[in-house]
Specification:
The protein is mainly alpha-helical. It is built from seven helices and two strands, in the order H-H-H-H-H-E-E-H-H.
């Protein structure tokens, strides 16, 4: 039941994004009000799950639902306190083998970047002047690959190569939006 709830919330999110993209309402420069409302509702539902069960871990809900809970937390950009709560719950889940370390890296980095701090794992990117992705500032960049490896992530240079190759494969040449 809990696993299906997490997966259903994520499916609703994906369906809304697809519908808005198909209608041309996104991408947009602002946080679309329907997306924001859904993300708020999903965060509220995840908060209730955390109150009762803690983090929806691998043993209790399985890989897909655990990842869905992580995506809900990642989308809660309007509520840093909630994201931090999720990060603490996820930290405990990772420590007990109930969630993937890379999920913790992404969530922690997103919180840090949204808070105006340097990220630790190099998971968050911005678009440079030339239109290509570049990592947001990284704390102690000389040790980033060590921290990434500890949580199951590939070296940052490999991630950037894959990201660049993916962009090049689309034929767009960069992520810069045309006016």
């Amino acid at each position: 039941m809990l696993a299906q709830q997490m997966v259903s919330l994520e499916q609703e999110d994906r369906a809304l994004i697809e519908d808005l993209y198909a209608s041309g309402e996104i991408p947009s420069p602002d946080y679309h009000p329907r997306v924001r409302a859904l993300h708020r509702a999903n965060a509220q539902r995840l908060g209730m799950v955390l109150d009762v069960h803690g983090w929806p871990g691998l043993t209790n809900v399985g890989e897909e639902a655990c990842q869905a809970a992580w995506r809900i937390a990642m989308n809660a950009v309007f509520d840093l306190a909630f994201m931090e709560r999720c990060c603490q719950e996820l930290l405990q889940a990772v420590a007990h083998g109930q969630a993937r370390g890379w999920q913790l890296a992404y969530l922690e980095d997103r919180i840090r970047v949204l808070s105006g701090q340097s990220q630790r794992y190099g998971t968050q990117f911005e678009i440079a002047e030339d239109g290509w992705p570049t990592p947001s500032p990284i704390e102690d960049p000389e040790r980033v690959d060590h921290r990434r490896a500890a949580l199951g992530l590939e070296p940052l240079s490999e991630r950037m190569s894959r990201l660049s190759a993916g962009i090049a494969a689309t034929g767009r040449g960069s992520l810069r939006r045309s006016a």
